[in-house]
Design a protein that fits this description.
- The longest helix is centred in the last third of the chain and has 20 residues.
- The protein is of the alpha/beta class.
- It contains eight helices and nine strands.
- Helix 5 runs parallel beside helix 7.
- It has one domain: Deoxyribonuclease I, Chain A (4-Layer Sandwich).
């Protein structure tokens, strides 16, 4: 299985861009991505501009994808349940697992598309369990791992923005996550709590002997090599050192060598520069 993670920045806008504007088909979009994945043996993450630079002529080779079983994890879908149509939700050959924002339209949201015949053993929306907890009389499957200790109000707030879908494939658990962006001081506590709860959820699975993959948009430039202008970032955020930013400190505890997760991008390309598409804080 190959896993692709992509901040799609609006699932309805993708078909406006070449080459998918020629077909207006989400199935063609997924198959086009799979074709590129056939020649890549590493977990990868792409921005839209990278995909658009690939030639249209590749589409003719799509029939060769019949034996390929990729997994597409998209973030920032910016679609609500009420606006979801069958062209997005019921793409032939795929099962779709969505999480929608509950706070405002055109915001956040994630979806994971799994190609047939692969089927997860269990699926969950959110990281806290508040959207999954069931009454004693229904047949909702149990949790994937363990839920962190949180008040119901905190859990509802954290999972109100449609930021995570968790799929259990048996041999590993996949988190598709759109981490919060630090858009202002009022979001700092939300981002910090979200990160810590996600980490607790992941590490509980690791403690249970499970294999875990976290795919998504982390919304953090971890090291100076990951940022287009680290000096300006320090100046803008009044930091003595680049790593003093709270989200970067948290990521240090989550990733090896201090943490238990491995940054696969830097594992394969530890010194590669310029792997960013825009300026972040």
């Amino acid at each position: 299985m190959r896993i692709l993670t992509w901040n799609i920045n609006g699932i309805r806008t993708v078909l406006q861009y070449y080459p998918w504007s020629k077909t207006k088909s989400y199935k063609v979009e997924l198959h086009f991505i799979e074709l590129i994945l056939l020649g890549n043996h590493h977990p990868i993450s792409w921005n839209l501009s990278v995909l658009l630079s690939v030639g249209r002529c590749l589409i003719q080779y799509m029939p060769n994808l019949i034996h390929h079983r990729p997994n597409h994890s998209f973030q920032e879908t910016k679609i609500t349940r009420s606006k979801l149509g069958p062209d997005v939700a019921m793409i032939p050959g795929y099962d779709a697992y969505f999480s929608f924002t509950r706070v405002k339209q055109g915001y956040s949201g994630v979806v994971t598309y799994v190609r047939h015949p692969l089927t997860p053993l269990a699926a969950e929306e959110g990281i806290t369990g508040v959207l999954h907890r069931s009454s004693p009389n229904d047949e909702t499957p149990g949790p994937i791992g363990h839920y962190p200790s949180l008040s119901v109000s905190d859990a509802q707030i954290l999972d109100s923005e449609g930021r995570c879908v968790i799929l259990d494939f048996g041999f590993f658990v996949l988190f598709n996550v759109y981490f919060p962006h630090l858009s202002g001081p009022d979001r700092e506590s939300f981002k910090s709590l979200f990160n810590s709860v996600l980490q607790c959820r992941v590490e509980a699975l690791l403690d249970a002997g499970r294999e875990v993959i976290v795919a998504g948009d982390v919304n953090v430039c971890h090291r100076e090599i990951d940022h287009c202008d680290p000096r300006q970032s320090c100046k803008d955020n009044e930091l003595q050192e680049f790593g003093d930013q709270p989200a970067r400190k948290w990521l240090d505890t989550f990733l090896a060598p201090n943490g238990r997760m491995v940054d696969m991008c830097r594992k394969f390309w530890p010194e590669r520069k310029g792997m960013f598409t825009c300026k972040l804080g």
